[in-house]
Design a protein that fits this description.
324 residues; 16 helices; 74% helix; 1% strand
Amino acid sequence: MDYLTLIQTPISAELKEFRQLFDDSLSSSNPLLQSVIAHIRQKNGKMMRPMLLLLVAKACGGAGPEAYHSAVSLELLHTASLVHDDVVDESGERRGQLSVNAVFNNKVAVLAGDFLLATALVQVELTRDHRIIEVVARLGQDLAEGELLQLSNVDNLNFSESIYFDVIRKKTAALFAACTKAGALAAGATDAQAERARLLGENIGICFQIKDDIFDYFDSPAVGKPTGNDMHEGKLTLPALYVLNNVADPLMRDLAVRVKRGTASPDDIGRLVQFTKDNGGMEYASCVMHQYRDRALEFISGLADDSLRRAFTAYLDYVVERDK
């Protein structure tokens, strides 16, 4: 049985409810907006975050309307952030297809992202739970702060792992943490239980981002982005940061500074990618990723339901072993 089947098995009915509500939330009479939504939904993804929310809700007592509205809200907010990120990053591709801004234009992309964000707010309000509304509101803050922190870090010529983790906690892990906390709250969990669920999501999100960063050092069409793409955008991720801080090579440090300043050539980036791979950067990042996976497993160990334990374990295995 594959990972996704294991993940979906205990929440198959809940996923059906979620998907219907998600589809209904995206209806619009505006032809241009409908065209944008249709384009986005060509690559809807596997809905990993809603699945995680529904799993946590079921583990904490059961998924009801509050969980479905929360899941739709967070998936819409996530989608909106991706549309806006592509404009900020001037990216022409998303998940192996042309980005919204590439197919339409920046104005349409920003406004479509705004519509998705507004719809996310409508959905979370329907939970009638101020704690869940606060989770979504603070997530919006975290995502924006994460982007700004990443942009400001381009000018920081230190190679700091601490800043790297600050960025990914806000840009990526915060979304997973919001899903797990909202799922717990939607099922009636106490604040203490919700905090435990939030930590589960944060650890999963950090694993997810480190895995994405590892992909950037290998050339694979399945991943949907070229090798060294992060470096072309002035970003140094965990594998390179480790090597730069642990291997004394002034030439490579100078090259890394040029990467951050946006003046490195494609050949320069190729050299830094190879230098990182040759000096243990990938192995280090993989080791750190598995440490966070082990932390996430602490939540799972207390579950009494075998199918949920298998689903959560499969979720973690998928995150760290996926090929795209």
